[in-house]
Design brief:
2 domains; Archaeosine Trna-guanine Transglycosylase, Chain: A, domain 4
Length: 370
């Protein structure tokens, strides 16, 4: 398996197959796969649905389609059950992240989510993400966890996305109508003809059908993330994955997407400020591929917010050597410039980030490595 960091999305139909509380029926094989990936040095983030389904029997409801507040209450109680259910399959700790579309659209919160995920992964924790159903009203909602998983893959800079449900992948025809229908192993380009293959799902437990999975795949592949739709209810799927086979539908990532991000940083994003670096920091950035730390900054100018792009100058040559996304606003950065990362909390009262610009969020402008 050629991936380093993957987001695995697990649908409600696998977490709570009968919508009567959580079940371990399918999760055991998924958890074993995740553990094997971790043992092979890979990083995994889970996006798990199932809180509404898991809490359904615990909240009184009269209709097959309960009101939104009733579903929110189901999600609230079901989320606890779901997390406890996942944790029992792992020896390593799991963590919970409940996020909304509003959070992902807000620059500061986006960076907070990104930083939290980074640290959780560094510590061998399995982050488990779900939409924050209690606070998410229609305009705040991502709406379905397939699209949420694609956004999580973006924010975490994953290279692969596995969408697990109880269907094998995308078929040439609806397999419920034609059992002979052929599975499509590879899709290189997502266009209307691919969407036309996505019949509505009949599964009453799942929120998204094939359409939201294809939407998620489209978002992911255009950002360079290899995406797979797989049947997580079949244990052999994971063995096939581990031996390098593709048991479902693989949406091929667009080439050059990482280059495109760097290109966007370099050419499209307007800088709102500037920092000057001493010689040591210039070397660390240009020769060692390091992130920018506050200790190497000798001057800060401009009026920038967290998440804005800033220019990075070599104070000796007065040349702009890099651009990147700042983890600090200009006021806080002025206060910590020249300080060691360990001193940030003393100066600011807290330490939002040890680095000013993370390497992944930086592009070098000189002809040295990126
Ligand atoms: N957030 C919802 C839940 O956990 C599910 C949304 C979805 O399945 O797409 O129940």
């Amino acid at each position: 398996m050629k991936f380093n960091r993957a987001v695995i999305k697990v649908g409600s139909a696998l977490v709570s197959p009968d919508a009567k509380g959580c079940s371990g029926k399918y999760l055991l094989a998924i958890a074993r796969f995740i553990t094997q990936c971790q043992q092979a040095g890979k990083e995994i983030i889970l996006v798990s649905s199932g809180s509404v389904a898991a809490g359904r029997s615990l909240i009184t409801h009269g209709s097959p389609n309960p009101s939104i507040p009733t579903k929110q209450a189901m999600a609230s109680v079901g989320q606890m059950q779901m997390m406890a259910n996942w944790q029992r399959f792992f020896d390593v700790p799991c963590s919970q992240l409940l996020i909304t579309h509003g959070d992902l659209k807000d620059r500061q919160r986006y960076i907070n989510i990104k930083n939290t995920l980074r640290i959780l992964l560094e510590n061998g924790v399995i982050p488990i993400v779900n939409e924050n159903d209690t606070v998410a009203t229609e305009e705040l909602k991502v709406g379905d966890n397939d699209n949420l998983a694609a956004l999580v893959a973006l924010v975490s800079e994953a290279d692969s996305l596995f969408i697990l449900s109880d269907v094998d992948g995308v078929f040439e025809q609806d397999p419920r109508i034609n059992p002979q229908a052929k599975l499509i192993p590879e899709i290189a380009k997502i266009d209307d003809s691919v969407y036309a293959l996505a019949g509505a799902t009949n599964n009453h437990i799942a929120t998204g059908g094939m359409k939201t999975k294809i939407q998620a795949a489209e978002k992911a592949v255009e950002n360079g993330i290899e995406t797979y739709i797989l049947n997580g209810s079949r244990g052999e799927v994971f063995e096939q994955l581990l031996s390098g086979d593709n048991p479902g539908t693989h949406f091929i990532a667009q080439q050059g997407a990482t280059r495109a991000r760097k290109h966007w940083l370099k050419h499209t994003l307007k800088s709102n400020g500037k920092v000057m670096l001493d010689l040591g920091a210039v070397r660390a950035l240009t020769e060692q591929g390091a992130s920018l730390l506050p200790s190497g900054i000798s001057a800060v100018s401009g009026n920038f917010k967290v998440g804005d792009c800033i220019d990075v100058f070599d104070s000796k040559s007065q040349q702009c050597i890099a651009k990147g996304i700042s983890q600090y606003n200009y006021r806080d950065l002025k206060r910590i410039q020249g300080k060691k990362s360990d001193e940030i909390s003393t100066v600011l009262g807290c330490c939002p980030s040890k680095v000013v610009i993370h390497r992944d969020d930086m592009v070098l402008l000189t002809n040295i490595r990126n």
